[in-house]
Amino acid sequence: MQQLILLTGASGGIGEALVEELAGYGDMILQGRNIARLEALAAVVEKVSGGASRAQIWAQDLADLVTLRRYLSSLPPASVFIHAAGQPLYAPFLKTEEKDWDALFKVHVKSAYLIIQKLLPHMLSRRYGRIIFVSSLWAQVGAAGEVAYAAAKGAINALVRSLGQELSGTGITVNAVAPGAVATRMVDHYLEADARQSLVEKIPAGRLAQPSEVAHLIRFLVEQSSDYLTGEIIGMSGGLH
């Protein structure tokens, strides 16, 4: 089924993998903060789809709710919404400033609320829709030094379970994929070699997840064959719990 896919966080590691994975599924709206990367990804959509799909670029910080609301006023009716946008915050709880806490919840939770509010009436009228979040293992097991990040992802998990129940039977599914550590630029930026190796040693699978593996699982959630799966938080941690 050709459809319009709205992907936030497209310029991140998992987002880029999702663009390649889903380019043949329909036109895409690619949100991110790195314009050059978004432009390159728009070209990927056309190339991978053989010109059958096009991509619209949406360059914005989702913590800017004023600009977000302005953009949403003319948002096309996407039938698939994938919320891969996110940002980490490494800080002890007592050194986590309120503005940083608020910004994290705007990007992870409030922006998703506003986007779903805009898209849901169209999905309901069609009796079809896919709402998919990239959550995190840390929302389930906790993460010292990342309290704000884990709390924001935990809010996403509660949203997924509750909205999945509320929309059950409407043709709209709501799910999240919750990976552990993924081999992305973000991980490379924040973890030094020793810390990365220490993390890998804790993972039973003996390695970090690849962004393409996360994208492949999300592709299944986009497909019609996943109709019965809703309100689920699907772990992908290499056995780490």
Automatic annotation (TrEMBL):
Residues 3-185 form the Ketoreductase domain. It comes from the Bacteria. Signal peptide: none annotated. The keyword Oxidoreductase applies. GO terms for biological process: monocarboxylic acid metabolic process. CDD domains: SDR_c. The keyword Cytoplasm does not apply. Keywords: Oxidoreductase. One of its GO terms (molecular function) is oxidoreductase activity. Belongs to the short-chain dehydrogenases/reductases (SDR) family. This is 3-oxoacyl-[acyl-carrier protein] reductase. It comes from Candidatus Carbonibacillus altaicus.
